Amino acid sequence: MKLLFKNIDEPGLATREVYEQRGGYASLRKALAMEPEAVLAELEASGLRGRGGAGFAMGKKVSFLPKGSIDKYLVCNADESEPGTFKDRELMQKSPHMLIEGIVIASYAAGANRSFIYIRGEYVQQADLLDAALAEARDAGYIGENILGSGHSLSLVVHRGAGAYICGEETGLLDSLEGKRGNPRLKPPFPANQGLYQGPTLINNVETLATVPTIIDMGGAQYAELGTETSKGTKLVSVSGHVQRPGNYEIELGIPSREIVYGLAGGPPEGRQVKCWFPGGSSSPVLIKDDLDLPYDFDSMAKAGSMLGSGAIIVVDDSTPILDVALKVAKFYRHESCGKCTPCREGTNWTVKMLERVQTGEATPMDLEIMASVQEHIIGNCLCVLGDAMAMPIGSLIAKFRGEFEAHIEQARAASGLTVGTPAPALAGGLV
Amino acid sequence: MSVTEPVEVPAELRTEIERHMALYPDSRSAALPALKAAQRVHGWCSPEALEQVAAVMGVTPAYLESVASFYDMLETEPVGKHSVYVCTNISCSLRGADELFAAIKDAAGSDTEFNVRPFECLGACDIAPMASVDGVYVGPLSIDDVPRLLDDLRADRPVLPEKQLSKRACADAEANA
Questions:
Q1: pLDDT tens digits in sequence order for chain B, 177 residues long
Q2: I want to staple A301 with a disulfide (CB 3.0 to 4.6 A). Which of A13, A308, A365, B61 is the partner?
């Protein structure tokens, strides 16, 4: 079943003309003829959970915004930076009007009159396409004062970031959108109460908002027929790494993970096996080959100790040393830590240093214990989850591939001429 | 900067920054677009660029420097005019990105026209290994593509046209059924 990707490659779909020929903006007309409360009720009935990573119920998030005629904001999070994730990019590039239509409907339900799309700065072409689509939408009266005579008004600005993973974290994003460094804020207050410019703010991911027109079209109850009990609907999944057909696929939530990795993406190259896979971007704890039989939905991934996250499956095959994977992941979070909270700033830095010691043969198996305990001390101890986003996958890699780490330590120590009893040079000279 | 010596700002740059400032309830939100505009004019966020943005926005250059230093795409040192961001994050590195980056870096050598950088996930793992060349995504790249990539840039031609992401169809076979 294709909802978001239906006719996605149709020539000209990025233009209003073709989008409307395909039924585009009919949902907006339908929604504006309803009361905002009724639109919200459809969103709640759909059971749609946020597609950006946290999986929070979208309708509930809208309902958290205070009622009444105060300035409210809607911000679309298009900062898609979670390693392995590239679904929003394809949606924005090929069907920008779908996102704009979703934003207008959601703003109507939430009573927001100013909206922003915060798009990562690297997505230059996608931002240009969104700006072009926005101009068309404005000309057609879908954006602006008194939209289609409904009395609802909305402004929309495409705001381009400048390269910072942390700006995908919603409060970091808000600070960045206010023209500051993208440092996360202390929560509470949550953005629904106090967000952009201190006003109540609804923040949703691109895919979440792009799904809204479909929900209004089908009806929330109908949409909720798709997927599983707690993971409704379809989901865009980005599959990458060691697969034969990397790319974005729209799946119904709850299908076996194996069907995605092997059936759709073709599995690893001939003669190789899946060693591990990240089910929801590089922030998610890794799963192993046997876990491929799990249904791909929010709860099954959580029960297996991981998460569906942004829906980015990264496959690693048996030709890759697990240490290389750990180092790549840890170095990324070290680079992207904003430095505000000590456990994250220091934890990411020391984890990289310890992994490098494993690589060079300076580590002993005891370092694995220390590394695992560092991860535990990061989780839950920072303003945002960036530190956790390293601690979770690194912790899982150490737990699930301990034998390989130990074997590497032994080999590297032998190769560098160190024996079990010899302290590493760095340690002999005191703490690094 | 002192009040007695007003900073001269190129008229076009001033207009662009003011246009951005008008888009937001709080004009400070225009810091990123303003800095990018100044970077386009000056090549990087030089002290002069920061002073000009500060003069138009009514903030201090120090404030803008603190912002500029936070973001990867804002350059705090002079760089080559052609940016080549090579994604070296996990999905691309599993498909040879580290070797690709080394080859591009090597081929560019000391040519100051190029700003070759390893970059975090650019959101295009479907064309891994890939690079963003002056904002245009190209991939999957092999080491053999490197000379032509740089030649295209030197000649101001579109870079590797057949490998540009914008021409790629969705991987989901049923999407266009």
A1: 455 578 999 999 999 999 999 999 999 999 999 999 999 999 999 999 999 999 999 999 999 999 999 999 999 999 999 999 999 999 999 999 999 999 999 999 999 999 999 999 999 999 999 999 999 999 999 999 999 999 999 999 999 999 999 999 999 999 987
A2: A308
* CA–CA distance, A26 with A21 (Å, rounded to integer): 10
**What is the distance between the alpha carbons of residues A238 and B123, in angstroms, rounded to a whole number?**
10
Tokens linked to A328: 């790549």
Residue A215: count other Cβ atoms within 10 Å of its Cβ.
29
Contacts of B124 in chain A (CB under 8 A): 86, 89
On the 0-12 / 13-18 / 19+ scale of CB atoms within 10 A, A374 is buried
Look at the block and give the residue holding tokens 């490197």: B146
Q: Which tokens in the block code for residue A148?
A: 């289609």
Query: Which residues face B131 on adjacent strands?
Result: B86, B138
Non-local (6+) Cβ contacts of A108 within 8 A are A31, A32, A36, A39, A150, A152, A154
What do you get for the CA distance between the two ends of chain B, in Å? 62
ipTM value, please give it: 0.96
Contact B31 A180 (CB under 8 A): yes
Geometric angle at alpha carbon B30, from B28 and B36, rounded to 5°: 135
**Contact between B126 and A242 using a beta-carbon 8 Å cutoff:** no
Q: Are A236 and A87 in contact (CB under 8 A)?
A: yes
Cα→Cα distances A239→A85, A86, A325, B127, Å: 8, 9, 17, 11
Considering only CB atoms, B121 lies closest to which of A81, A94, A164, namely A81
**Distances in whole angstroms, Cα of residue B147 to Cα of each of A88, A115, B95:** 32, 44, 20
d(CA B143, CA A406): 34
Shortest Cα–Cα distance, A246 to chain B (Å): 5
Q: At A384, phi and psi to the nearest 5?
A: -125, -175
Name which of B89, B169, B170 is nearest A83 (Cβ-Cβ). B89
- The rounded distance, in Å, linking the Cα atoms of B67 and B28 is 11
User: What are the DSSP calls for A343-360, one per residue?
Assistant: HHHHHHHHHHHHHHHHHH
Of the candidates B126, B113, B98, B110, the one whose C-alpha atom is nearest the C-alpha of residue B154 is B113
Any long-range contacts for B154-157 (C-beta under 8 Å, 24+ apart)? Answer: B154/B113
Q: How far apart are the first and last CA of chain A?
A: 56
In contact, A86 and B126? CB cutoff 8 Å: yes
Q: In chain A, which residues have their Cβ closer than 8 Å to the Cβ of B35?
A: 162
> The tokens 């990019």 sit on which residue?
A89
Quick one: tokens of A366?
A: 């005891």
The alpha carbon of residue B94 is apart from the nearest alpha carbon of chain A, in Å, by 6
What phi, psi does A198 have (nearest 5°)?
Answer: 70, 5
**DSSP H/E element including A234:** strand A234-241
Neighbours of B127 (CB within 10 A): 24
Among the partner residues B29, B36, B94, nearest to A177 by beta-carbon distance: B29
What is the C-alpha to C-alpha distance for residues B146 and B148, in angstroms, rounded to an integer?
6
Of B36, B91, B120, the CB nearest to A240: B91
